[in-house]
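Shift notes (night). Ran AraC family transcriptional regulator while the centrifuge was going.
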Amino acid sequence: MPLEKLHHLAKRYEHYKGIASESYLHAAHVFQRDTDSEYEAMLYNPFICIILQGRKEVHIGQNSVSLVPNDALLVSHDLPVTAKIFEASQAAPYRSLVFALDMGLLRSLYDQVGEMFQNEASASALAATPADPSFIAPMVRYLELMDAPLDAQILGPMIVKEIHFRLLMSPIGGMLRNLLSVDSHASRIARSINKIRSSFREPLIVAELAEIAGMSPSSFHEHFKSVTGTTPLQYQKDLRLIEAREILLKGTPSVSAAGFEVGYESPTHFSRDYSRKFGCSPKHHLALAK
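Came back to this:
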């Protein structure tokens, strides 16, 4: 079975990446954990993830997906999510194979095939489905290159391009196709997301984001939530809190300093939002850094 072979190769690839002094296989990453996790907040960048062992749940806003072995998770936009890993142990760790998506490569492919597609209103920026053999097969071939450095150097980029093409053409790729259409709602919302990400410390002005997206404020709010599963204000808040946690865990003079650094004006407001997001006070995470 292709997925069984992929899992076997992923276990070898994890070891290979740890010892290879020079690797030409940069596109893939194996994530492994041998204990269940709590619900953890993090920022997902566009990727395709294949669940090989264990289970995972991912939430954003009111949208959620539950993933089991042989499922694929496709993320098309930058998304602040909450995720939890289940059924992980030292004997049978949670394991997934992740390929980061190259949006420039996807755009070059879309230029060749874009006329074939129409906007898909039901597509989601966080999409899950049983893994499709069309993109599993090139993933297998990509990992097989770890035993042939010259082949990896020459053929690796070609296979990565094939993986992107298969995802673009697959049923799970609906939001990717929407995103790459220049004037689509998904593409416009992506521009507003870029603005929020680059200035998340600043006050959120919905009218300005709507103008960037070329929409009225009411239409922008509706389409933002349709694409991301959350509101612009909550999206910004999640970015702030995820960044604040990183600042606290690296060590900072105080909780209030972390809050101010990510854009909060009130330490009380910051501590309340932080506790709701992470289930513990910011002082707890600051203490871990000391």
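DSSP finds twelve helices and nine strands in the chain. The chain has a mean pLDDT of 90.
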